[in-house]
Amino acid sequence: MSECKVETALEILTGKWKPKILFQLLNHKTMRFNELMRMIPGVTQRMLTQHLRELEEQDIVTRTVYAEVPPKVEYSISDYGSTLVPVLQTMDEWGRKHAEHIQKRNETN
User: Fold this and answer.
1) What is the rounded distance in angstroms from the CA atom of residue 21 to the CA atom of residue 61?
2) What angle do CA 102, 104, 108 make, to 5 degrees?
3) Among positive and negative, which fits the CA dihedral 74, 78, 84, 89?
4) pLDDT tens for residues 93-105?
5) pTM higher than 0.90, yes or no?
6) How does DSSP assign 51-95, residue by residue?
């Protein structure tokens, strides 16, 4: 029997900030650090930096540094990271349905 790798996938997708980072990058293709900070209310610079590094280490996000003054750095979903799109779409659909289900259940109780 093969080993279950759901936990491996969830390590990349879980946490308060990673799904929000991925959502922004999937919707905007390429973003600078400060753009991400503005689009993700409540995230600290430290947390955003940490999660972007982790996503980069996992080859989910690509970091491109341009030789300019001041330095310009852009983040985008890597080619490999784009394979997550169907997974994230399915999770989003299920999350919406689950929220509706819980709301209906709470209304009837």
Assistant:
1) 10
2) 115
3) positive
4) 999 999 999 999 9
5) no
6) HHHHHHHTTSEEEEEE--SS-EEEEEE-TTGGGGHHHHHHHHHHH
Which amino acid type is present at position 3?
A: E
How far out from the chain centre does Cα 11 lie?
12
pLDDT recorded at residue 86: 94
d(CA 11, CA 105): 30
Instruction: Identify the helix (H) or strand (E) that includes residue 32.
Output: strand 30-32
- pLDDT given at position 51: 96
* Mean of pLDDT values over 75-82: 97
